[in-house]
From TrEMBL:
Pfam families: DCC1-like. GO terms for molecular function: protein-disulfide reductase activity. This is Thiol-disulfide oxidoreductase DCC family protein.
Length: 137
C-alpha cells in the first residue's frame, strides 16, 4: 500500500456526495491541529485502504476514519471520533457514546440512505483547490 502520512488520521468519504463533501470542508476548516487527511472511497487509494482494513467497499455506505496502525471507525463512531479530535465544542458529541451503537447507526443509516435525495450528488469526485491539495491523498 502507498506510504501514508505518519501521525495523520485518514478520513475516507463518498467523493460524489454533496453532504459528505460539505462535511469534509467543515472538518478542514476546523482541523486546527492538522490531524486529518482525506481520501475518496471511489479512488484507487480509497479502495486499497478498504481492502487493507478488511472493509467490503461494495457494502459500505459510510464515512470511515482510519488511524493507520491503530484502528478504524465507521458510521456514527467515526463521526464521534472526528468531532472529538476537532476538540472544543465539537468534542461534546462524545456524549452520544452513551447511546447504543446500534441506535446511533440506525439514525446514521437513515441519513446515509437519503443523502443523495436530500443533498444531491456530483458527477465526479471533488477536485481540491491548490491550497487544499496537501490535505488529500
Amino acid at each position: 500500500m502507498q506510504d501514508l502520512p505518519k501521525y495523520k488520521k485518514i478520513i475516507l468519504f463518498d467523493g460524489v456526495c454533496n453532504l459528505c463533501n460539505g462535511a469534509v470542508q467543515f472538518i478542514i476548516k476546523h482541523d486546527k491541529k492538522d490531524i486529518f487527511r482525506f481520501v475518496a472511497l471511489q479512488s484507487d487509494l480509497g479502495k486499497e485502504i478498504c481492502n487493507y482494513i478488511g472493509v467490503d467497499q461494495t457494502k459500505i455506505d459510510s464515512i470511515i476514519l482510519y488511524n493507520p496502525g491503530v484502528a478504524y471507525y465507521h458510521k456514527s463512531s467515526a463521526v464521534i471520533e472526528i468531532a472529538n479530535d476537532l476538540g472544543g465544542i465539537y468534542s461534546l458529541l462524545s456524549v452520544f457514546k452513551i447511546l447504543p451503537e446500534k441506535l446511533r447507526n440506525y439514525i446514521y443509516n437513515y441519513i446515509a440512505k437519503n443523502r443523495y435525495k436530500w443533498y444531491g450528488k456530483k458527477e465526479s469526485c471533488m477536485i481540491p483547490t491548490p491550497e487544499l491539495k496537501a490535505k488529500f491523498l
